[in-house]
Amino acid sequence: MLSIRGSTLAVTATAIVFGYCLRGGIVLAADGQSRAIQGSERFAGKLLASTPQGKKVTVNVDLKVWNVSSPRLTVLPVTGFCVANAISGQLVTVINGKSELHAPGDFWTVPNGVPMLVATKSESATLQTIAVRGPSSSGSRQK
Questions:
Q1: In what side-by-side order are the strands of the sheet with 81-88?
Q2: Over the chain, what is the mean pLDDT?
Q3: Which of 49, 88, 128, 138 is at a distance of 20 to 30 A from 119, taking alpha carbons?
Q4: What is the three-class DSSP state of 73?
Q5: Which residues pair with residue 66 across a beta bridge?
Q6: What is the domain class of 36-137 according to CATH?
Q7: How many Cβ atoms sit within 10 Å of the Cβ of residue 93?
Q8: Is 127 helix (H, G, I), strand (E, B) or coil?
Q9: Local structure of 7: helix, strand or coil
Q10: Closest CA to 39 of 17, 63, 20
């Protein structure tokens, strides 16, 4: 039987670990097991682009590398229009309800606002994402 002091310590330790995992890019399952998706940001910045009408707009671009080591489908936390590239291992993705197997060298896109579920078919897999957010993907206007 745990004392109240021991329970408080366990809850505090769990909260610290959970917060650390969220900041580190690890998505936790409801049952407490790690789904082992880790992201590493390689570039994040604003770029100037032109609309088809020639208007200059600023868009946000993120380039991230993700390591996936779970055979269970998990949402990859990417926002905006996304171009993905499988780097190593075998991946399964589900986008708009459609499941596809990807091997190293494969490229695919994910529409803005559509979640991408990923799982590995090998021990682990690595993919790269380039996400674009701004007037062209969110509909908002920047001046």
A1: 37-50, 56-68, 125-133, 81-88, 107-110
A2: 78
A3: 138
A4: coil
A5: 39, 127
A6: mainly beta
A7: 21
A8: strand
A9: helix
A10: 63
AA identity, residue 7? S
- Rounded to whole angstroms, the Cα distance separating 121 from 35 reads 14
Cα 89 to its chain centre, rounded Å, is 17
Which range (13-27, 37-51, 96-110, 127-141) has the least confidence? 13-27
Q: Are 112 and 138 in contact (CB under 8 A)?
A: yes
Residues 6+ apart with CB under 8 A from 126: 65, 66, 67, 68, 86, 87, 88, 89
Q: Which two tokens stand for residue 17?
A: 């670990």
Written as one string, the DSSP assignment of 62-77 is: EEEEEEE--SS-EEE-
Q: Are 126 and 88 in contact (CB under 8 A)?
A: yes
Of 14, 108, 30, nearest to 74 by C-alpha is 30
Q: What is the phi/psi pair of residue 135, to 5°?
A: -55, -40
Q: How far apart are the first and last CA of the chain?
A: 62
Dist. CA 94–CA 5, nearest whole Å: 45
Phi, psi of 76, rounded to the nearest 5 degrees: -80, 125
**Domain residue limits, the chain:** 1-34, 36-137
Q: Which two tokens stand for residue 120?
A: 């590995």
